[in-house]
Amino acid sequence: MTSTITKTRMPLLQELMMALRAIDSDCYKSWLVLGIEELGRDVAAEVESE
Q1: The model scores a pTM over 0.70
Q2: Is residue 22 part of a domain?
């Protein structure tokens, strides 16, 4: 179950990641790998999918 804090921060995180992806794709990929390592694949996939 996703906490309220996660639900409110997820849209901001998604927006930041998409901006980073548009500006610097190599940096985006390194952050995505870090997210997968730190948060798990489910959270990283959720951020990227929306």
Answers
A1: no
A2: yes
Between the alpha carbon of residue 31 and those of residues 15, 22, 34, 35, the distances in Å are 14, 13, 5, 6
Residue range of the domain that includes 40: 15-49
Cβ density class 8-30: b for 16+ within 10 Å, e for less: eeeeeeeeebeebeeeeeeebee
Question: Average pLDDT, whole number, for the chain?
Answer: 76
Interatomic CA distance for residues 10 and 50, integer angstroms = 10
The DSSP result for 1-50, as a single string, is ---HHHHHHHHHHHHHHHHHHHH-HHHHHHHHHHHHHHH-HHHHHHHHH-
Total domains in the chain come to 1
